[in-house]
Amino acid sequence: MPGTREDNGIPLLHSDNDLNGYATRSTPSVMPIRGQRPRSSDAGNPYVGSKLALSNESEEEKPRNSTAAASDKESLDESQLLPQEFVVSFQNGGSPVVDIENGATRSSDVFRQSRCNAVYLDWKNITYTVPVKKKEKKALISRMYGRAEPGTLTAIMGPSGAGKTTLMNVLSGHYDKGYQGEVQVNGWVRDTELFNQQSCYVMQDDCLLPELTVREALTVGVQLRMPSLNRSKREQLVDEAMARWGLDICQHTRTSCLSGGQRKRLAISQELISNPPVIFLDEPTSGLDSISALRCVKVMKTLAAAGHTVLCSIHNPSAKLFSHFDRVVTEIASGEYGNLNKQLAKSFTPDYSEEVNEKKLDHPVLTEYGGKIMNKKEKAEEMELHRVHVNYFHQFVVLVKRCFLCVIRNKVATLLRLVAYIFIAGMMTVLFYDVGNSATRVISNAALFLLCLTMALFQSAMPTVLIFPTELTVLLREHRNCWYSPFMYYIARIITELPFTIFGPLSMMSFLYWTTGQPQEMWRAATVVMFVIQVGSVSQGLALVVSALSSIQTAVFLVLPVASPSFLFSGFFVQARHIPVAFRWIMETSHLYHGMQGLLEALYGRGRGELDCEENELCFLSDPEEVLRHLDVENIDISHKFLILIAMDLFYRLAAFLILKWRLRRKR
Asked: Do residues 366 and 398 share a domain?
C-alpha cells in the first residue's frame, strides 16, 4: 500500500516500489465545514443542502495529527458537509447547465431526469505491460495506486510517454486485459460491462462523422442513450448542451467544417449529455486556445461539483487551469531508481498513514442513498439505477436513419456510384450491340456477361472496403461508451448499402439486356439480373471481410489481390476440366464461377431456339445446347447455383461481423 505525507496541505502519495507513482494535490483554498447549514437564500435551490460523504473512516481510523486532518478535505466523515462550492445535490440527478463564460450554473429539469450515483474509483498496484520482443515485455505503467471520488476533479499529469492514456484506458475499463492489479468501484472489484454503462470516455482524437451537423450529432447521441425522452425534452436537452459548450452558434454546421476547438467541445458534449456518474477525458484541452481550455475545465469542475467522478489527463496546464483541479496524479517517465524508493517511503511517510489508507481502501464506501454501508446486493441494485436498457429495434432505427443521412449528404460519392453503372452500360452497348442472338459471336456474348459480373464485383467492393476503416474510430468510441450494440450498427450499415447493391446492377442490366439482343423471355431477363445482383452482394460481403481486417491504407490495395482468384477461376478463361485437380477447389470458391454458370444456363438453356447465323458465315454453335457444352456448362441447376451464392454471401457477412467484433475487443 502507498504511504502518504502531508506537506503544506498537499498530501503526497507514492508507491513503495518505484517513483513511477503519483502525487495527489488537494486544493487548500476551500476548507471543509462541519455541520454547515444551507443559507436562507438557498431555500428551494436543488443544488444546495445535500450531503455527500467522501470517506468511510470511523472515528478511531482518523489521523492522529489534527492539524493535517483539518486541512485535508478528503478526510470528511459522514457527519460533515461539503463546503458551499461543492455542496451540489445530485440526488435528483443531472448536471447543471453551465455558463461557459463565467462558470455560473442554473437548474434544468431535463438534466434532473435521472439521479447520478456516487461512484468511488480505487486502483491498487496497477501495472500494464506490452510485448516488445520474444519473451520480453515493457511496462508502460508500474505499481500505480490511487482513488477518485465524487465531487472532485482529478487530473493525471505527466510528460509525453509517461503512460497517462494507458492509465486512463485501464481505469475506464477499455483495457480489460494485459494489466496486473485491481480496480475497485464503490469498494468492490469492478464489473467492466456494468461499469462501462456507468461511465463515459472522451478520447483524445475527435471521432466525429463528417456528414452530420452539430445538432444532429447531439440528437443522435440523446436518442441512443436516453430513449425515454420525448421529442420536446430531447430538443431541450440538445439546446442546453449546445449552450453549455458554446456550440449554439454553429449548430447547423457540419462537423467537417468546424474548427479544432469546436470539434473537441462537440466530442466532449456528446458523451456528457447522458449524465454518466463517472467521466474520463483524455487530453480534453489539447488543440484548444487558452480561453476555450479554461471554459472546458470550468465545465468539468461544475460537473464534479454536481456529484460526478471526473478524471482527465492533461499534458501541460497553465497555472490558472491547474488551480481548478482538486487532485493531481503525477506520472514520472524516468524509469525506476532501484531500492531507494523504499527508503524514501520510510523516511517521508508517517506510520499511521499506511494503516489509515489500508482501512479506507478495503471497505465499501458510504453513499448518500440511505446513509449506510452498501452490501454487495445493494451495490448492484444501486448501480442498476443508472443503467439504460435500450430496445435493439430503437437502436436499429436510429442508426439506419443516421447512415442514410450520411449517404445522402455525401452527394458526390453517391452520384458517382450510380452514374458509373450507366456509363459502363453505354460503353458496353457500343461494343456488344445485338450480340445476344448471333451464333458467330457466342464467345463475345459470354465475355459481355463476365464483364457485367466483374463490374458488379468492383462497384460493390471498392466503396464497401472503406466503410470500417473510415468509421472504426467512431464505432470504437461509441461502442466503448455503450451507445449501441455492434450488431445493430453492422445491420444498419448493410441496409444502407442495399440500394447500391440492388439498383446499380438493376439499372445497368435493364439498359444493357435489351440493347444487346438477348432472349426476350421475361424469366430469362429476371434470372440474369438476379445473378448479377447476387454476385455484387457476395462481392460486397467479401469486401466487408477485407474492410474489417485492414486499415484504410491497406484496404484499397487488398481488393484486387482478393478478387483476382475469383475472376481468373470464373471458368471463362480456362475451363474446369483443364485446371489441375489440386487447384479446382479455388474454382468452387469463386462466386464469379457460380454466377457465370447460372447466368449462361439462363441465357442458353431451358429450350431456347436456334441462334441466328449470318450469311456467308460458318456457324458451329447455332444450337444453344452445343453452346453450353462448348462453355462447359452442362446439367446445371439454376436454383442450386443461386443458393450457393446466397450461402457464400451469408458466410462472408457473418465472418465480417465476427472479425469486426474481434477487432473491437482487441482494442480493449
From this structure: no
